[in-house]
Amino acid sequence: MSSPIPSSVSPYTRTKNLVWFARMLHKARLHAAGQLGPDYLPWIGKGFDGRCLRFLRIEYAALRQRIEAGGTDEEILEWCFAQGRRPTEEEILIFNEFMVKRGIRDTDNPGQVEGYKEKNNFGGRTDIQTYFDVIEADEGRFTPDAVPNPKPKA
């Protein structure tokens, strides 16, 4: 992306062991404050946000209202569990593994990660293989030895 998220949150950051959720909330908070860059606006509640929302069975509009009411990421995730669904640890593991590996040999959008790499000046980098890798590289956090087992958020 040409306009990185201010003080961005890694997609690998875990909230109650769930990847992406903390990043989604951070983007929603920035959006509400008018601080989210234009490159991110088309993906609010869609893309990986949409996958996370569908996994939790929560609508973006309802989540946005809950975020506006305040609370920690953990409190908001507990609200999602109560309003939508509480996945099992195994379901969270499967979701996380899907998310962190998205882009490797995808059959529904072959070559899309390569396109994002080219767009973000990472073309030819074989160490960047997934969407999460592209995000991490674009936001200055990517180191191959640090992926994919970041420290879970407390």
Give me the strand/helix succession: HHHHHHH
Percent helix among the residues? 40-55%
Q: What is the count of distinct domains?
A: 2
Count of strand segments: 0
Give the count of helical stretches: 7
Mean pLDDT equals 90
Q: Sum up the overall morphology in one term.
A: globular
Helical/strand content category:
mainly alpha
The proportion of residues in beta strands is under 5%
Taking pLDDT < 50 over at least 5 consecutive residues as the criterion, the unreliable ranges are 150-154
**Rg (C-alpha, Å):** 15 Å
Topology:
Blueprint: H1 21-32, H2 47-56, H3 60-68, H4 73-83, H5 89-101, H6 112-119, H7 131-138
Structure description:
With 154 residues, the protein is an all-alpha fold. It folds into two domains: 1-101, no CATH class; 106-143, no CATH class. It is built from seven helices and no strands. It has helices at 21-32, 47-56, 60-68, 73-83, 89-101, 112-119, 131-138. The chain is globular. The relative contact order is 0.16.
Feature tags:
154 residues, mainly alpha, 2 domains, 46% helix, 0% strand, globular, disordered C terminus
Give a quick precis of the structure.
This protein is 46% helix and 0% strand. By secondary structure, the protein is mainly alpha-helical. Residues 150-154 have low confidence and may be disordered.
